[in-house]
Amino acid sequence: MVINVGVLEHPLKLYKTQNDYLRQWVEHRNKYLEALLAMEAPPNPQKCSICDGDGTYRCLGCFSQPLFCTQCCWKQHYMLPFHQIKQCMGTFFEDLSLCLAGMVLHLGHHGQPCPSGVPEGMDQHANRVPFPVDVPPFLWVPQGGNHLTLVDMTGIHLLQVRYCICPTSQPFHMQLLELGLLSTTIDQPKTAFSFSVLNDLIHDNLECGTSASNYYNKL
User: Fold this and answer.
1) C-beta separation of 55 from 48 below 8 A
2) What gap in Å lies between CA 72 and CA 49, rounded to an integer?
3) Which residues of 110-126 are buried (b: 16+ CB within 10 A; e: fewer)?
4) With 70 as the cut, is the pLDDT of residue 209 above it?
5) Are strands 126-127 and 93-96 parallel, antiparallel or unpaired?
6) What pLDDT does 14 receive?
7) Are 201 and 189 spatial neighbours (Cβ–Cβ below 8 Å)?
8) Which of 25, 99, 107, 149 lies 20 to 30 A from 209 at CA?
């Protein structure tokens, strides 16, 4: 018995190519563009995602980029100091930093101010001053206060830091180390690197041959 097998003029495709997926997406590109543009404007109502207060800040690091009032922004980022935020300016958002939003990183008391006060010679408050327009907000340094430059995989950050000065407290550089931050100096730390950025630098150097200077420029 002979079985005739016909040849399909247009063979069935068992998988989709990259072009097939792009053709599907092209049909929705205008909707994508509208959604992306809508995300740049403050939502209505403009409420804090925690307390329903006035949503002043949007966090780019938190999932879904929620809005926060000032107090909730500080509380939510006590353990997330490397997140980048934007401030609502009416009809749009403008780049800002947690430092300029007034957040202070308190060490030694689970995010609470040290009951022994502020270290001698350390200003307790930072004041805003005019900043150069060509300097990104996360590098703006207000006058006054004790600011620490923190280098992380997410970039370079400036934060106001208040160390614990209780009689049993560790030296400042050890307080940073206990939080996973390696200070560049022993006395009066001014710059510290997170363990995650140091590990990532090692991996980049081993796998890609990236030099320390090129890696820093990338940040």
Assistant:
1) yes
2) 9
3) eeeebeeeeeeeeeeeb
4) yes
5) unpaired
6) 73
7) no
8) 149
